[in-house]
Amino acid sequence: MPTDEGTEIGVVLDRESVDFGVVKMGDVLSRRVKIKNHTGEAVQITGVKASCSCTQCTISRETLKRGEEATIEVMLDTHGLIGRQYHKVTVATDGKEYEFAVMAEIK
Fold this sequence. Notes:
Elements: E1 11-13, E2 17-23, E3 28-37, E4 43-50, E5 55-59, E6 63-64, E7 69-77, E8 83-93, E9 97-106
Parallel strand pairs: 2-9
Antiparallel strand pairs: 1-3, 3-7, 4-6, 4-8, 5-7, 8-9
């Protein structure tokens, strides 16, 4: 999708955060985040990394051609966690890094 200047808008995540809300300690939670390539060329996903070992991420494909989309499966294991949790997930491509937050209130 070109901008007014004729340049491409890049790679886009469908959300800035994943908020699991209030959950019980010990729950294992899962959500999906979509990432779409709006550039004019293929984009290589070089890594998906969470700021905490309690958050695991997997991506459905590592190469996104123009217009293609991938799904990032985000799993939060709340065993041993209590209170408000805030973690970052970084998606690295061959051109730029993108981030989204993972949050939960663990009781």
